[in-house]
C-alpha cells in the first residue's frame, strides 16, 4: 500500500461526524507538528490553517481546502481497504481529498509556489456554523484555491446556492371522527405542494456551463395525535439557484412561490459560487491535461471563498455519487491520479 493510501485509510479510521471533529483535528495537528517544524499554524475550534514554511516572494499563492467532518456513518458501513477500494464514512466526501492535501503539503519545498492548507470542521452543517469562515482572516493574497470535494478528478466549477426554509400552515384542531369541527392544516398546504410538483428545472448558462435551478419539498411534519385533525403542518423547502443570482433574489422568488399561503421561515442561506478559472496557471494546466470542466450542481465552499475574493474550483478524487452513501468508498486509483494531477499543477510556474 502506498503512503498516500495509508494517509487516506488513517483519516477514515478516525470518526469525525459534524460537531465531533476534535479528535481528528488533534491528530492532524500532531502530523503537522512532526512534519513542519517552522510551520505557521492557526487553530480555530476544530479547524486550522497551515502554512508549511516561509513564503518565497514572487511566487503565486495557492490554497488547498478540505473539510474534515462527515455525515453520521450508516450502520452497514464497511471500513478499510478491500481490493482496490477504501471503504469508510467520508472516504469519498472528502477524506481522500484531505489525504492528497497532506501529501502536497509534505512536498511543499519541491513546488515553485507558496502553499497554504485550510482544514476545517462543520461543512456538513448550516452555512453560518461552517468552520472555514474563521480561517479566512487574515489570508495572504491567494491566486486561487483548490477545494478537494469529490469530483471524480474532473473540474467542477462554480456552485449553486442553497436556501433552506420552513413553511408553516395553521389550521384548527378537532377530533378526526368530526373533522368538520376543525380545519386541517395539511390541506392548507395542498396548493403549494401542487405548485411544487409542477415545477420544472430552470436551465441557466454561466460561462458556457449549464446549471439547474430547482425547488423541492424535502420534509413534511404535522405534530399531534393520529386521531386528531392537525392544527399545524410544516413543509421544509430546499431551493437551489445558479451563479449570478443573489441571496436576496432567490429569497424573493421563494417568497413569491409560497404566495403568503403559509408562514415562511428562512433558516439557512448559502450563496452561489461564480465560475472562476481564468488564472493563466490554471488555464495551462487544464489544457495540457485535457481536463473535463463541469458545473457544480451542489453547494460547496467555492462560494464562501469567492465571496472573500478568492477564485476557487472543486477538484477531488472522490466520486460525488458516493458522497453520503450507506457503504461509501473511494477508488484508490482515483486518489493516486488526483495526487499526480495536483503535483503537475503545483509544479507549473
Give a short summary of the structure.
With 349 residues, the protein is α+β, with helices and mostly antiparallel strands. The chain is built from nine helices and 18 strands. The strands form five sheets. The protein has a six-stranded mixed sheet with strand order 1-2-6-3-7-17. The protein has a five-stranded antiparallel sheet with strand order 11-12-14-9-15. It has a three-stranded antiparallel sheet with strand order 4-5-18.
Structural notes for this entry:
By secondary structure, the chain is of the alpha+beta class. It has two domains: 3-159 and 273-347, Zn peptidases (Aminopeptidase), CATH 3.40.630.10; 161-270, 2-Layer Sandwich (Alpha-Beta Plaits). Helix content is 28%, strand content 28%. The protein has nine helices and 18 strands. The chain has helices at residues 3-13, 22-35, 91-106, 185-188, 190-198, 247-258, 280-289, 302-307, 332-347, and strands spanning 40-44, 47-51, 61-67, 80-82, 85-87, 114-120, 144-147, 155-157, 161-170, 174-175, 202-206, 209-221, 228-229, 232-241, 263-270, 293-295, 312-314, 329-331. The chain has a six-stranded mixed beta sheet. β1 and β2 (47-51) form a beta hairpin. The protein is elongated and about 75 Å long. The mean pLDDT is 97.
SSE arrangement:
Layout: H1 3-13, H2 22-35, E1 40-44, E2 47-51, E3 61-67, E4 80-82, E5 85-87, H3 91-106, E6 114-120, E7 144-147, E8 155-157, E9 161-170, E10 174-175, H4 185-188, H5 190-198, E11 202-206, E12 209-221, E13 228-229, E14 232-241, H6 247-258, E15 263-270, H7 280-289, E16 293-295, H8 302-307, E17 312-314, E18 329-331, H9 332-347
Parallel strand pairs: 3-6, 3-7, 7-17, 8-16
Antiparallel strand pairs: 1-2, 2-6, 4-5, 5-18, 9-14, 9-15, 10-13, 11-12, 12-14
Amino acid at each position: 500500500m502506498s503512503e498516500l493510501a495509508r494517509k487516506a485509510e488513517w483519516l477514515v479510521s478516525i470518526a469525525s461526524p459534524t460537531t465531533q471533529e476534535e479528535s481528528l483535528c488533534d491528530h492532524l495537528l500532531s502530523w503537522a507538528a512532526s512534519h513542519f517544524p517552522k510551520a505557521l499554524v492557526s487553530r480555530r475550534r476544530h479547524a486550522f490553517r497551515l502554512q508549511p514554511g516561509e513564503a518565497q516572494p514572487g511566487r503565486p499563492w495557492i490554497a488547498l481546502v478540505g473539510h474534515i467532518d462527515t455525515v453520521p456513518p450508516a450502520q452497514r458501513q464497511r471500513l478499510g481497504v478491500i481490493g482496490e477500494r477504501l471503504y469508510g464514512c467520508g472516504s469519498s466526501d472528502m477524506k481522500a481529498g484531505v489525504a492528497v492535501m497532506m501529501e502536497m503539503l509534505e512536498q511543499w519545498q519541491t513546488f515553485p509556489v507558496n502553499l497554504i492548507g485550510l482544514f476545517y470542521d462543520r461543512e456538513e452543517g448550516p452555512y453560518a456554523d461552517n468552520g472555514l469562515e474563521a480561517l479566512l482572516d487574515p489570508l495572504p493574497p491567494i491566486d486561487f484555491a483548490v477545494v478537494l470535494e469529490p469530483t471524480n478528478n474532473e473540474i467542477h466549477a462554480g456552485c449553486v446556492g442553497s436556501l433552506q426554509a420552513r413553511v408553516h400552515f395553521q389550521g384548527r384542531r378537532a377530533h378526526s371522527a368530526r373533522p368538520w369541527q376543525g380545519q386541517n392544516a395539511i390541506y392548507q398546504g395542498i396548493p403549494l405542494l401542487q405548485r411544487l410538483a409542477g415545477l420544472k428545472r430552470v436551465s441557466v448558462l454561466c460561462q458556457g456551463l449549464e446549471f439547474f435551478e430547482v425547488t423541492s419539498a424535502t420534509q413534511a411534519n404535522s405534530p399531534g395525535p393520529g386521531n386528531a385533525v392537525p392544527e399545524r403542518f410544516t413543509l421544509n423547502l430546499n431551493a437551489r439557484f445558479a451563479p449570478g443570482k443573489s441571496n436576496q433574489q432567490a429569497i424573493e422568488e421563494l417568497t413569491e412561490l409560497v404566495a403568503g399561503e403559509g408562514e415562511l421561515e428562512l433558516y439557512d442561506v448559502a450563496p452561489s459560487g461564480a465560475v472562476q478559472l481564468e488564472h493563466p496557471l490554471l488555464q495551462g494546466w487544464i489544457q495540457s491535461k485535457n481536463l473535463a470542466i463541469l458545473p457544480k450542481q451542489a453547494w460547496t465552499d467555492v462560494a464562501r471563498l469567492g465571496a472573500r475574493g478568492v477564485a476557487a474550483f472543486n477538484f477531488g478524487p472522490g466520486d460525488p455519487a458516493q458522497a453520503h452513501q450507506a457503504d461509501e468508498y473511494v477508488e484508490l486509483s482515483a486518489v493516486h491520479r488526483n495526487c499526480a494531477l495536483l503535483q503537475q499543477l503545483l509544479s507549473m510556474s
